[in-house]
Every structure is written in C-alpha cells, then in structure tokens.
Automatic annotation (TrEMBL):
UniProt key word Oxidoreductase: yes
GO molecular function per UniProt: arsenate reductase (glutaredoxin) activity
Family in the record: Belongs to the ArsC family.
Organism: Streptomyces capillispiralis
Pfam family, one: ArsC
Protein name according to UniProt: Arsenate reductase
SUPFAM superfamilies hit by this protein: Thioredoxin-like (SSF52833)
PANTHER family: ARSENATE REDUCTASE
Keywords recorded for this protein, A-Z: Oxidoreductase
Keyword DNA-binding: no
Superkingdom of source: Bacteria
Length: 119
C-alpha cells in the first residue's frame, strides 16, 4: 500500500494517523517532491476508475492560471489534463491510497481510508 500525501494537508495527516492506528503497512510518497510521471498518473487513474479532471483540485492557483474550468472533459482532452497534473502536482487531489488489490481510493475521509484497508 502506498499513500500520496502533502504533509501540510490535514486530510493527509488524518489518513496517516488512521493507517498508523490500524497498524497498516504502507509507504509514503510526498508527491510534491517525488512528482508522479504522466504514466504513473495514468496508472493511478485506472486503479481509481476516474478521469484526470475527477482528481484535479480546480481551486488551486495553478488551475486558475491554466484556465482548467474551460478545458474540455472528454477523451480528446485526457492527455492534456494528465500533462497538467504532472507539470503542476499541487493540482492532484490528496491523499490517494493505492490498495493491495490493485485498486486505489482518494482517501479524504476515514471511511475511504478504511475502505482501502479492507481491500
């Protein structure tokens, strides 16, 4: 199990605390320092069953600068979104936990963290 975090994020700290309380074995990826490649983002999206715009933090300054709210949200725009997430990792929703069964969850709630632990 791996968890992508921003240590400054309260949701990330809560997820780590819950993982620790449950005795989970996991590795931490500080994705702002160890930026995921476009291929890694594609792989996580597949595991999540989501599209890149589904995990994009659209209220971030970079999102506004890029004009993401006006970008198409379709198959033709998918690579553009993934490139933006790789170039501006702050745009990636957090935390993301990759579960042992090959799936992943955006773990913004205790329920989502528990869901990842049960997989």
């Amino acid at each position: 199990m791996e968890i992508w975090i921003n240590p400054a994020c309260s949701k990330c700290r809560s997820a780590i605390s819950l993982l620790d309380a449950e005795g989970a074995e996991y590795t931490v990826r500080r994705y702002l320092e160890d930026v995921p490649s476009e291929d890694e983002i594609r792989a996580v999206l597949e595991r999540l069953g989501l599209e890149p715009w589904d995990i994009t933090r659209t209220q971030e300054a970079a999102a506004k600068e890029l004009g993401l709210k006006d970008w198409a949200r379709d198959a033709g725009a998918r690579d553009r979104w993934i490139a933006a997430l790789a170039a501006h990792p702050r745009l990636i929703q957090r935390p993301i936990i990759t579960a042992e069964d090959g799936t992943a969850v955006v773990a913004r709630t205790d329920e989502a963290v528990r869901d990842a632990l049960s997989r």
